[in-house]
Amino acid sequence: MVLGPDEVAALADYPALIGALEEAFRGDCVAPQRAHHRMAVPGGSDATLLLMPAWSPGRYVGVKVASVFPDNGAKGLAAVQSVYLLSSGETGRLLATIDGAELTSRRTAAASALAARRLARADASRLLIVGTGEIARRVAAAHAAVRPICTVAVWGRDRGRAVALADELARDGFAARATDDLEAAVAEADIVSCGTLSRVPLIQGAWLRPGTHLDLIGAFTPEMRETDDAAVRRASVFVDTGAALEEAGDLVQPMRAGAIGRDHVRADLADLAAGRHPGRCREDEITLFKSVGASLEDLAGATLCYERARARGRN
């Protein structure tokens, strides 16, 4: 079975995908540490090759082969290119080849929404999207599946792309606009979702008002970051998995500087999904969710797509 991007989008709607991720984080999925390789690109920024395996014993085994080329935006291409291979957990027989880019974008946004269901205020309706890449196109719909999102502001270094994304979101039914004033937009937002490849802080802790939820999707290496130390210090910090403590510059750099310790992280998504941590405890609490991606999320999304496709008669 081969599932292209349009089929993945149709099969993995956000309510179903968020539920599949929650079940996976509660379950017995095995997710070894991913292989992470830096690749030189002559005349350009270094690229990254990722191999992300996971399996559910006796059910499914899968691996995503992904690459991240930071300069692709200037070439009109997505930074992330990938493919997912889903096999039987009983025999190893290949069951499906699935478009990895669509799967990755959707499961990443869905993981943020799963976290927001525990961490954002129940009445959160104002979303700020920082960044204009592929993931930025997904987060509004994902968060709207768990919170009453109605207004969306978009900030990007390229104003033209920010305007284009705001127009796209407006066509999807959101009251969306591009903004040039990042500080003011942060101060107005209930949820701030960042999906960039920035190596310098974009969000300042001093800008955050009580009750804000900060969703950090980009900055997946120790050299990258989207927030300053003050933002991390002020927030109750949660992560998708423990790998964020080793890979995410938003945490690695403040720890190196002594601004926070490892114990500053309250819980991970497995703890939140299983109810071992309640998530947000106060209305005025600033919460921060840092994700670097987890292979069990890919497996959960791939399994959802495969089983739904089979149920609809695909072979």
Structural write-up:
The chain is an alpha/beta fold and 315 residues long. It folds into two domains: 2-103 and 296-311, ornithine cyclodeaminase, domain 1; 119-293, NAD(P)-binding Rossmann-like Domain (Rossmann fold, 3-Layer(aba) Sandwich), CATH 3.40.50.720. Helix content is 35%, strand content 24%. The chain contains eleven helices and 14 strands. α4 (136-144) links the parallel β7 and β8. α1 (5-11) packs parallel to α3, α2 crosses α3 and α3 (100-119) crosses α4 (136-144). The model has no long low-confidence stretch (mean pLDDT 94). GO terms for molecular function: oxidoreductase activity. One of its GO terms (biological process) is carboxylic acid metabolic process. InterPro entries: NAD(P)-bd_dom_sf, ODC_Mu_crystall, ODC_N. It comes from Aliidongia dinghuensis.
What are the secondary-structure elements, in order, as H or E?
EHHEEEEEHEHEHEHEEHEHHEHEH
User: Helicity, in percent?
Assistant: 25-40%
Integer average pLDDT: 94
As for the number of domains, it is 2
Strand order of the largest sheet: 9-8-7-10-11-14-12-13
Biggest β-sheet description: 8 strands, parallel
Beta fraction: 15-25%
For this structure, what is the CATH homologous superfamily of the largest domain?
NAD(P)-binding Rossmann-like Domain
By CATH, the architecture of the largest domain is named: 3-Layer(aba) Sandwich
- Silhouette: globular
Low-confidence parts: none
Structural class, from secondary structure content? alpha/beta
Report the total helices.
11
Radius of gyration: 18 Å
The first-level CATH class of the largest domain is given as: Alpha Beta
As for the CATH topology of the largest domain, it is Rossmann fold
- For the termini, the CA-CA separation is 6 Å
Count of extended strands: 14
GO biological process, one term: carboxylic acid metabolic process
Organism: Aliidongia dinghuensis
GO cellular component, one term: cytoplasm
Protein name: Ornithine cyclodeaminase
